[in-house]
Write a structure and sequence with these properties.
- 74% of the residues lie in helices and 0% in strands.
- By secondary structure, it is an all-alpha fold.
């Protein structure tokens, strides 16, 4: 016998071992990716837990002093109240002007052409 020859019945076994090796390598890669993903998830969860702890701590503490935002918000509310009153006043004036205009149109349509200037609603103000 010159050289070592492999029996032909070992070839299928060697092919099976090669396929198993490839599958185990693939599983190892998948497992590493899962471990890395879980590690990142734990880090993120830890960061979120710390943020929530800080938020809860801040929410339960009494403010150290006057918050400047409170005064600014009060000023904004006051200004909005004034604007609301003004806008409501404009609405009432527009309603009155619309009624006056409608009345003037009706009166003007019923008068002869020469008498329209006598009943001019604009001159009343």
């Amino acid at each position: 016998m010159s050289g070592i020859s492999q029996p032909t019945n070992l070839a299928p076994l060697i092919g099976s071992v090669d396929r198993l090796h490839e599958e185990v390598s693939g599983l190892r890669t998948d497992m590493q990716a899962l471990v890395q993903g879980l590690s990142l998830m734990v880090e993120t969860q830890s960061a979120h837990s710390e943020m929530l702890r800080q938020l809860l701590e801040a929410a339960t503490q009494e403010p150290a002093g006057e918050n400047p935002m409170e005064g600014l918000l009060r000023q904004v509310v006051t200004a909005l109240d004034r604007v609301t009153v003004t806008v409501q006043g404009f609405g009432r004036k527009l309603d009155r002007n619309s009624q006056m205009l409608a009345g003037a149109i009706v009166r003007g349509a019923g008068q002869p052409e020469g008498n329209q200037e006598q009943d001019d609603p604009v001159a009343e103000d």
